[in-house]
Amino acid sequence: MNLKKILSVAALCAVSTSSYAANWSSTQLHINNGDQKNPFTLAESNTTVVSLQHASGYDYGDNFFFIDYSDDGLQDGYQDKDFYGEWYSTFSLSKISGSDFSSGAISDVGLTAGFNAAGDSKVLKYLPGVKLSWQAPGFSFLSTLFTAYIDDSEGVARGGAPTETNSWMIDVAWGYPFTIGSQKFNVTGHVEYIAERENEFGEDVKAWILAQPIITWDLGHAMSMKENTLLLGLEWQYWHNKLGTNTTESVPQLHVEWTF
Q1: The whole model's pTM is what?
Q2: What's the rounded Cα separation, in Å, for the pair 208 and 216?
Q3: Is pLDDT of 10 > 70?
């Protein structure tokens, strides 16, 4: 399927959920800027990533998606005005069944259906799995996602990246707000591990670890605007075996966040 069609459907679904059934929703524009690497050529260039991100909760679960637009200023076949998106819908077993699935620090268990899609590389992955939501003091949210990582990409014959064997993923995501004096801050982000696989040429695609913690200062609150509307901060992207290669990247990025 064409990436633009997939992401258009995702956006329409999110808008529909937010407008008619959401108990809560948040839509944000993120801008990140830093010196990122092309993992295949090792060329490093100043890269701007503009992201539309949406999260919402409704009576039976929650939705989350983001769409990235990346431009690194180099015409090298990597991040050349390219799009990438992820979507996850989770159905709460507690809400669907009417039974309490909490246990100890676990506040809920959900069934998740997700996909990852990339534009130029014509990559499409399906990620069915299980999400654990945790009760953790001070955290606005803390979750662990366990999914399969099923390839449905178009492959080299159709002008895309090589197809891959199926694999699996673990992802931990969090939000932790705090204050220093009268100023408000937040630490958010996620860490994912995707296990190794093989591409269509029989070559190993290495397991990777991608960590993207973000610390933000509530600039809007400091300027007597509405809280959690305009945030300024720093995102650190650490990517071991970036895209399954031998390249490891560690880069700080300026982060600006606007909540609609």
Answers
A1: 0.90
A2: 26
A3: no
